[in-house]
Fold:
Amino acid sequence: MPLFKKPIEQEFFSLRLRAGRPMTELEFYARELTDWETSPERCEMIDGDRYYTGDHDILKRQRTAIGPDGKLIVIENLPSNRIVDNQYAKHVDQKANYLLGQPISFSCENDDYAAEVKKVLGMRFMRTLKSAGVECLNAGISWLYPYYNKNGELAFRVFPGYEIMPFWADAAHTELDSALRLYPVEVYYGTEKKIVKKVDLFTLEGVTTYIFENGVLTPDTEKQAYVKVKDSKGNEQPLNWERFPLIPIKYNPKEVPLIRRGRSLQDAINLLQSDFVNNMEEDVRNTVLVLKNYDGQDLGEFRRNLTTYGAIKVRTVEGTDGGVDSLEISVNSENYKTVLELLKKALIENLRSYDAKDDRLSGTPNQMNIQSMYCDIDLDANAMETELQASFEEILWFVNTYLANTGKGSYESEDITVIFNRDILINESEAIDNCSKSVGIISDETIVAMHPWVDDPAAELERLEKQKEETDPYRAAFEQARALRNPEGGDPVNEE
Structure:
């Protein structure tokens, strides 16, 4: 399946030609959804999510051996450990926390606008955005859905990539024509609980819910507006957004999920550790027994007698005494350790993360060593941040619309900069020393912003100013004298 779907008009026309008859819009969506539901693209998205939660392929593994016909057969009585060492999830969290772990900042000349944006996009939104970041890493793309909550406030909901089938208006994936959301719902038919597949069809005109069964979409609810607001009389009025209410959050421009880069390495790590534990548990089989003149019928009986009685019977045949010899098979743990370290290092490099146990962090590392360690994750974060900046253009449009609709002001013409504060390790002593040496060279605001202990430079400058007023014994008297000399304010009156 191609990575980029054709615009909906082209796809619809192509399907009509293949069908040889007029095709309804609903039939078109049903056919496309049927293909997409089991497509490799969506399966990879689901795999990214389940690997993140610890559901790895190793959990389905069975011990096998070559059978009499040369084919593999399952062996039930062998140790079959299924160990999940979830390095993939660690790196997903590492990337999400690195870029989205700290609150975002807003820079704007209009302080009132910046304050209103910060209210709407507060900590609750940051939690939602971080969740969207994790989902887009797992699936290559996730979606933010703006809506009004029960309190009439603007809020956002996250849809994972495997739930949304987009129909793009362009090949660059910047504008949507429509979208389908596929999700399971538990319902009761009498006393029996069943899973029903529901589908939401998003268009600019509203959203319609269907039941998806056997490749057919059956209407479940009528088309509904995205927003319901109350007029002056308290009556609800249905309204739709002027823009498509699904905002893509992309990991990269081609929407390639992170799991594609590291799945094979993660599987190898799980397999290596599982096999090592299996070999440790197979201590009996680490010693190969060579039987001579065994007084029994089969090896199963030999194994039972050895386990039950700790002894076996042997016999003498044609003057040759029976006995049991052994061949030792040693398990070299150092080999496992070396290979495991190589696999984990390769996973870090392929996922473009950083090693928190890197030797460069030993002792008292300087800032150059720390920056070199963060080189790969910085490059990946730069690409993700570019996509997030484009997403924020859409997010801020919905914020501005909400502020205008609630009478808090019209800010469409205002420019605002979104700043992502990356959660990077620093040498605090070195950073503070550099700040001290910069006094008198650059502005106090810039110095305070670069200080490692400051999260809000503006608030910190206000606290500094207040502190100066409280600790200066002459300042209050000076201000009082100045006010007496010039009651109307402004510059002091020149008595000469």
Q: What stands out?
A: The chain has a mean pLDDT of 83. The first strand starts at residue 64 and ends at 66. The chain is about 45% helix and 20% strand.
